[in-house]
């Protein structure tokens, strides 16, 4: 079989590997589509994602759709369309019963956090534990189903903000996750959803998904205290300063974008006088099931997918995915 393997910064290879065999409690999948995530971009272009450095060849990818290739238990028939919850959780921790994704000691497909690394989904054949498999509803295309994982991230973030019905919402950063947060906020009943970005093209995509107010950084200003809830999705420190300024008194800021693991010049002084709530958002728990159901309802989120590129052309795919003017979500076709 073939697999995409990152050996170091800007060194990715479409190489041969032995076909894996499933054991007890495992399922072998024939992967069809894999989305390129921000963490994948960091692994490819920098050889590291934050503090997690590639120490051995790494197969990237945790956003995927597939069909069942082999299920030794016989529960899932060959050809069954599926997606995958990419997390394996750590041991139980008191107080985290409802938040298993926060337990230490777990792992995630396509991650160099552990050593040996947890190999990812950009492989023609993939072995996963059977509890990670989610069977797709009839009629949900595999291409669209590859959005289930990032949409689950967006739904989790929106859920952390509480009831959005009738509220004014701002999404800072209109990359793929920001776009899905826009769509999730509209779905959650927000009265107004605004979007802010440094480029005009992502803002046009946000409008197509329901954003009714857009702000181009450097051209448009955002009035202070103008939004009830602000989702910071860019991962840029200065944008958190903007989020705190834009939030209304007693409002909520949800930090969705992954901030650098370093000191940064962020002005949080206004949060005191405003009594703001700032929430961190990390991956998701059960929201992938909600994401699958939402994707099955309609094709409204199809515009988030801007490119589908053969996995054998991975260098081109990663270059395209890095350019937010040219792309939104880029899928690898295997």
The N- to C-terminal Cα distance equals: 11 Å
**Amount of helix:** 10-25%
CATH architecture descriptor name of the largest domain: Alpha-Beta Complex
How many DSSP E strands? Answer: 19
Domain module tally: 2
Q: Which series of helices and strands comes N to C?
A: EEEHEEEEEEEEHHEHEHEEHEHEHEHE
CATH topology of the largest domain: Quinone Oxidoreductase, Chain A, domain 1
Question: Would you state the CATH class of the largest domain?
Answer: Alpha Beta
Helix/sheet category? alpha/beta
Q: Compute the CA-based radius of gyration.
A: 20 Å
Q: What amount of the residues lies in strands?
A: 25-35%
Q: Give the quaternary arrangement of the chains.
A: single chain
Broad shape? globular
The whole-number mean of residue pLDDT values reads: 96
Main sheet record: 7 strands, mixed
Uncertain ranges: none
CATH superfamily of the largest domain: Medium-chain alcohol dehydrogenases, catalytic domain
Number of helices: 9
């Amino acid at each position: 079989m073939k697999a995409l393997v990152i050996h170091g910064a800007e060194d990715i290879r479409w190489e041969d590997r032995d076909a894996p065999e499933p054991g007890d409690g495992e399922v072998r999948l024939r992967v069809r589509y894999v989305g390129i995530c921000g963490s994948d971009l960091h692994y490819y272009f920098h050889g590291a994602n934050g503090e997690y450095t590639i120490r051995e060849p790494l197969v990237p990818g945790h956003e995927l759709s597939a069909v069942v290739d082999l299920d030794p238990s016989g529960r899932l028939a060959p050809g069954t369309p599926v997606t995958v919850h990419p997390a394996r959780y750590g041991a139980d921790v008191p107080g985290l019963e409802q938040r298993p994704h926060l337990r230490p000691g777990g792992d995630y497909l396509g991650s160099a956090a552990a050593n040996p690394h947890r190999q990812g989904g950009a492989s023609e054949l993939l072995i996963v534990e059977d509890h990670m498999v989610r069977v797709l509803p009839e009629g949900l295309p595999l291409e669209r189903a590859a959005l289930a994982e990032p949409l689950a991230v967006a739904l989790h973030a929106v859920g952390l903000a509480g009831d959005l019905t009738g509220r004014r919402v701002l999404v800072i950063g209109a990359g793929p996750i920001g776009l899905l947060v826009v769509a999730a906020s509209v779905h959650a009943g927000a009265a107004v959803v605004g979007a802010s970005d440094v480029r005009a093209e992502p803002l046009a995509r946000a409008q197509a998904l329901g954003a009714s107010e857009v702000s181009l950084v450097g051209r448009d200003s955002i009035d202070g205290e103008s939004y009830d809830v602000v989702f910071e999705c860019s991962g840029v420190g200065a944008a958190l300063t903007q989020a705190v300024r834009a939030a209304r008194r007693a409002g909520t800021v949800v930090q969705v974008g992954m901030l650098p693991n370093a000191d940064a010049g962020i002005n949080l002084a206004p949060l005191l006088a405003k009594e703001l709530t700032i929430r961190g958002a990390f991956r998701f728990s059960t929201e992938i099931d909600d994401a699958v159901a939402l994707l099955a309802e309609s094709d409204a989120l199809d515009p988030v997918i801007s490119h589908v590129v053969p996995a054998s052309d991975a260098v081109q795919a990663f270059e395209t995915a890095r350019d937010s003017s040219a792309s939104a979500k880029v899928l690898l076709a295997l």
